[in-house]
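Long-time lurker, first post. I've been practising inverse folding by hand and with some scripts of my own, and I keep getting stuck on stretches where the structure tokens seem ambiguous. Below is the full token string for one chain I'm working on. Before anyone asks, I'm not after the true native sequence, just a reasonable design that respects the backbone. If someone could post their per-position residues I'd love to compare against what I wrote down in my notebook.
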């Protein structure tokens, strides 16, 4: 229950920040901050996977050779 309250409080704080947006520059700045935040999280996770051996150069090379396209069922 405490985690739910904390999440609720975080959402309310975020809404207060959004309420302060007045210009497109504010929007762009907030977008950049969020993009940087999630890029850092992704990089940290990639580092963790590299460090524990889940991924390595061979795995990354395999990814480069994969063709993961969405299969479409074309009904005729």
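-- Answer (accepted) --
I ran through it position by position. Result:
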């Amino acid at each position: 229950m405490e985690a739910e309250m904390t999440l609720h409080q975080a959402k309310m704080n975020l809404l207060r920040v959004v309420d302060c947006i007045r210009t497109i520059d504010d929007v762009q700045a907030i977008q950049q901050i969020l993009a940087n935040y999630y890029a850092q999280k992704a990089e940290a996770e990639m580092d963790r996977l590299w460090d524990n051996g889940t991924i390595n150069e061979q795995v990354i090379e395999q990814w480069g050779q994969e063709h993961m396209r969405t299969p479409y069922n074309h009904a005729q």
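A couple of notes from the structure itself: The mean pLDDT is 89. The first helix runs from residue 2 to 19. Happy to go over any region you disagree with.
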